[in-house]
Amino acid sequence: MDYVVIIPAAGQGKRMGAGKNKLLLTLEGIPVLIHTLRVFEADEACTGVILTIHPDDEQSFKELLGRYGITKIAALVHGGRERQDSVFNGLKAAPASEVILVHDAARPFIKKNTIRMLAEAALLDGAAIAAVPVKDTIKKAENLHVTETVERSSLWAVQTPQAFRVSVLREAHEQAEKDHFTGTDDSSLVERLGHKVAIIEGDYDNIKLTTPEDLYFAEAIMKKREI
Ligand code: CTP
Ligand code: MG
Question: Which residues does the UniProt site feature Transition state stabilizer point to (predicted)?
Fold first, then answer.
């Protein structure tokens, strides 16, 4: 199943505290941004990448794309204030396709097999997300006192990629904008319209680089990585 992918990369990496966009940090000498882009560069089913960037990073990102020979960039667009705005900007610039993926640049360890399964499932169900079963016991609390232990067997930790029929993602973002609704991922915009969202079980090593200790995990995952 051919697809295009929006890669939001327009954040500022505040929680990483690196003093620059965390996507410029390197793993085994190569920037995180490039590790992520290379997965899609190597997947024949990917027909185009829409990269959303922060204006401050425009020059350095363009230089990296050239240096590492990234060829699949169909559009380079400025992101917005929130991740959701960045994705919507990317969507407006996307070339025609039936299926579209959204994948955070900050998750460099995504596997081709998961991508393929997501694209197939999105065509069938309209939307599909990568997720893993929650391992921890999760409790709700107020003022640092437990109010409830949540039944774990139905809980999933959600990742990207998330895959959609383009018409579904477009409707979801347009409606969210009208309603001033902000979600923490794209599938939540689809859910609220009552559409189906399928889960594809992914991998625990598809981590998002968010805080400094994630870099230690990332170094370890790099060593045993297979795309
Ligand atoms: N992102 C984006 N536009 C924004 C905010 C985030 O394109 N306005 C991107 C990030 O670059 C990242 C992905 O969305 O690839 C997931 O966001 P997150 O992990 O929160 O990254 P940052 O927003 O950069 O980090 P922080 O929240 O710590 O500042
Ligand atoms: Mg953020």
Answer: 15, 22
